[in-house]
Amino acid sequence: MRIKLSFQIKLFLCLVAFSSLLLTLIGAYTYYQLDAQLHRDLGARAQVQAREIALIPTLVDTVKNNDTDGIAALMNKIRASSDASYIVIGDNHTMHLYHSEHSNLLGTPMIGGDNKEVLEGKSIISIRKGGIGVSLRSKAPIMDENNQVIGIVSVGYLKSHIDSLNARTLTQIVGSIVLLLIALFIFSWLLSKNLKRQMFSLEPKEIALLVRQQKALLEAIYEGVIAVDPQLRIITINHAARELLDLRQPASSLMGREISEVIQSQPDFFSMTQLEQDTHDEVCRFNHARVIASRVRIMQEEELQGWVISFRDKNDINTLSSQLSQVKRYADNLRIMRHEQLNWTATLAGLLHMQRYDEAVRYVEAQSEGAQEILDFISQRFSSAALCGLLLGKYASAREKGIELRFDPACQLRQLPASLNETELMSIIGNLLDNAVDATLHCSAPHDAVELYINDSSNELVIEVADRGPGIAAQVRDTLFEQGVTTKDKGDHGIGLHLVASHVAQAHGSIEVSDNDPHGAIFSLFIPKA
């Protein structure tokens, strides 16, 4: 059965294993270096002692006279102050004259095979097996006044003595490594635990999944989103933000840049005084775009980690508002038709109550004839049921305001252009008719009729709306279709014609505005069918 370990345990075990291996290698290398250094130091010490002993005049005389008792008396004093394992004196025939550890070796040959160079007058350091075991030793020649080699001084440290020194050193190294390992165990456990807490107890796979999900969510969000760190450097930005701000660079090239280098805001949305508090739905300008922006602080354990800025195009809100207003107008049209129907029903009920049956019949016939005529015309000429409902509503609404909506006899619409849907067509016609009625109401009564022409008999859909209002002022004619531009004095205006122009442009059509003699304006729209 496969055991699944958590990230904390894996990290702890990896840190412990790596630390143990590293400390073991360091300990082995240190022991090797200390052992080599100890051999060099003891060899040098033995050599110094051997040379100094070989230069003692009394020793030279006693060796020359082969006085073993004199040699022993002299060397016993020196041996008492030396840390060497042994001191040996031999003659020029490599025979023992003195041995500090074994007096029974006197007269026996010095073994080890390293006496030849010494007899030639050289001082050596070697590791050999002698009479009492393997040792690190140094030998120096004893010279007479004629510089003739008359004897040998050997000072040595037994291998067992060196091993005991190394064992003491090794014990210290192992003790230090064990203490370091214990400290590393504690450090590794605390580090892995702290990392686990900072990762909100999530596994790396879970974090990777969250990162991918966050990236997908950011790209799926319609609003622009930018996150910055406490130094106001960009740490993430989604595609919608780059598109709204018209940033051509890839997101990777924007990371780490200060937000003020990327966005010029009016008013200053990123000043320190503004950043002290969160804000929602603030209207401002980012670069060239008018946006509605929000800013929220990122807090972790009462510590500021940065900010998240989200924003959307202000025009989108205005467009939505206009579309909602259009729906409201449809509802108003239905209310007007219902109101007219109630008035008609109340009048008919009054005539019947007064038993004026002939007048009631004539009233019903008159009302039915007029309503049926316009109903038959609209239903026969236009194939869209939604458009028929809109035109009937607009007809009733205009009549309630004292204005006749007059349809051109050549009106017809059998099929919508491919690039224009039914909702967009109703938005176009509804906004044009509303503007025409409002413009006509600006003139004194009696009001002239508003004329409508819709025809798709050629290769394009033609829509014309003519009014007898005051006309289009010269100062707004060039900017008439821009958002916010209006000739009306009050109310929520400046969006209808902008919507009309947007729908027509999307359908690859064109708009012409001309004067309607003697006064008024004519809006002509040409939308290709293909």
From TrEMBL:
Residue ranges of coiled coil: none
Segments traversing the membrane: 173-191
Ranges for domain Histidine kinase: 398-530
Topology in the lipid bilayer: Multi-pass membrane protein
Gene Ontology MF: a single term: phosphorelay sensor kinase activity
GO biological process: regulation of DNA-templated transcription
Reactions catalysed, as given in the entry: ATP + protein L-histidine = ADP + protein N-phospho-L-histidine
Organism for this UniProt entry: Serratia oryzae
Cell compartment(s), UniProt: Cell membrane
Protein name: histidine kinase
Gene3D superfamilies on file: Histidine kinase-like ATPase, C-terminal domain (3.30.565.10), PAS domain (3.30.450.20)
Listed GO CC annotations: plasma membrane
EC number: 2.7.13.3
Keywords assigned by UniProt, alphabetized: ATP-binding, Cell membrane, Kinase, Membrane, Nucleotide-binding, Phosphoprotein, Transferase, Transmembrane, Transmembrane helix, Two-component regulatory system
